């Protein structure tokens, strides 16, 4: 016993220090072990979230690509066909050409001049209006698709915490989706009468003083087309041309807030109007219109003697021959492909889809 006491007195400090170190080391080990487990749990949680994010991205991309395909193969072709038919119905150029052809040697000079001037106005109206309509309709439908895809992404992200699979989530009502995409027919069904009238007014202003014997070159024709587009786009209130593409804001505001489907449709239409009335969209539209105008004139140049210059009277029949090129089905339409490939257009729609509302 005395030995133990003596040993304790002699080595007490060392024993206390050793015991303290061992206790501290054990405590540090426990803290480290707990911290390591927390880190492992956090890493598993982050990995799970990353996996969910990848699932969302993959499935949303598949859903969005499916909507894009529907728009390209169904919505746009249908709208283009409807639009082309309406333009032929509303702007009857063939009947005037028939009168001129059958009236040779019969029509008096004043009647003949009147018909030629009428043909001049209608031919340019139909050409520029077709160019404008096809360009703006394709951009409008792409705005629809991107807004719809954006809503699908948000709705899916909100459902991430649910135990349901993404396929089971009710993203956007199918009827609501179809109604929204079908609104692209507004231009052909309701907007075209006033569109023709205002475009014809721009054509008359620009062609005022242009005689049938005047010589048109590639440069002159391109400048004339661009001038008509500029006058048309700048005449009236800012963004007045939006009302040719979609129903007015007053028409979309008369909805019942208790109807979820109508409310969702109203929200989609409202967002679409906000986009197409933006300065960014206007810039993209102007770039696209210029690109298509240049391509149209180049197309005519390859089929005529336009490069060397030709009288306006001889140019008018050639204008009619280019109409099928402008209104060709989307899969064969050179102008639509040019629009899709424009860097400014690609950037605009990339940013539109990525710009999620809070």
Automatic annotation (TrEMBL):
<dbReference type="GO" id="GO:0030674">
    <property type="term" value="F:protein-macromolecule adaptor activity"/>
</dbReference>
<dbReference type="Pfam" id="PF04882">
    <property type="entry name" value="Peroxin-3"/>
</dbReference>
<dbReference type="InterPro" id="IPR006966">
    <property type="entry name" value="Peroxin-3"/>
</dbReference>
<protein>
    <submittedName>
        <fullName>Peroxin-3</fullName>
    </submittedName>
</protein>
<dbReference type="GO" id="GO:0005778">
    <property type="term" value="C:peroxisomal membrane"/>
</dbReference>
<dbReference type="GO" id="GO:0045046">
    <property type="term" value="P:protein import into peroxisome membrane"/>
</dbReference>
